[in-house]
Amino acid sequence: MSAEFTKLHSLLKRAHHALYNAYSHFLVWDSMKRLMAGNIVGNDEASKNVETINDFKNFFLPSLEANRKVFAIELARIFDLDKRALSLQKIINYTRSNKKKLKVDDFKEFNIGRNSLDSLITGYNGITEDLLKQCEKKLLEINDKVKKLKKFRNTRLAHDQIAATDTVLSVEEAEDLLDRDE
Questions:
Q1: What average pLDDT does the segment 16-23 reach?
Q2: In whole angstroms, what is the distance from residue 3 CA to residue 125 CA?
Q3: Quick check: 14 pLDDT over 70?
Q4: Which pLDDT does position 91 carry in this prediction?
Q5: Residues 112-120, mean pLDDT to the nearest whole number
Q6: Helix H or strand E segment including 46
Q7: Distance (Å, whole) CA 157 – CA 161
Q8: Predicted local confidence at residue 163, as pLDDT
Q9: Other C-beta atoms within 10 Å of 149: how many?
Q10: Which residues of 107-128 are buried (b: 16+ CB within 10 A; e: fewer)?
């Protein structure tokens, strides 16, 4: 297997792990918030949940905040353009500069032992410039949300600036950034 394919796989695996970690923390945070929302679980249930949370507030409230912070920090890393960061754009750039070296044989060797290897190989056409442009287009479509996320991370989580503006990422914006279907 080529060094380029191995490195690309390593970058993708690390990015997948970071996204999964961010998503896991988001799910915990979102679930806890929903348990306290009368419009979601009903006012009586929400009141009982809030009462229970308050009974153990030294556990639940720090957990809620920790999951929110880890989610935002992990997700922001994926979109960070710093040359030291593992970002989706860095993976696209690496793929673009090495796409001629990313061969079907490497793909085949990597997937040896999979049940549907023949159909995977038949359907694999390699990395095209069109595919890379589609990925970049998707990143551009969420750029405003990414900027908001990074501002929140930089002013509230990483540095806790005194003069920070209240930048809040909504649940819907977070879900858009975590869109796993694409």
A1: 94
A2: 19
A3: yes
A4: 95
A5: 79
A6: helix 43-55
A7: 9
A8: 54
A9: 24
A10: beeeeeeeeeeeeeeeeeeebe
Tokens found for residue 8:
């690309």
For residue 37, give every residue at least 6 positions away whose Cβ sits within 8 Å of its Cβ, in sequence order, or none: 46
Share of residues in the chain with pLDDT > 90 (%): 58
Q: Is 100 helix (H, G, I), strand (E, B) or coil?
A: helix
Query: Per this entry, what is the length of the chain?
Result: 182
pLDDT attached to residue 111: 80
**What pLDDT shows up at residue 130?**
94
Kindly report each contact of residues 23-28 with a partner whose C-beta sits within 8 Å and lies 24 or more positions away, as own/partner. 23/71, 23/178, 23/180, 25/67, 25/68, 25/70, 25/71, 25/74, 26/67, 26/71, 26/75, 26/174, 26/178, 28/63, 28/67
Task: Return the HEC string of 122-176.
Answer: HHCCCCCHHHHHHHHHHHHHCHHHHHHHHHHHHHHHCCCCCCCCCCCCCHHHHHH
* Cβ-Cβ contacts under 8 Å for 164 (sequence gap 6 or more): 155, 156
State the DSSP H helix or E strand holding residue 116, giving kind and residue range, or none if neither: none
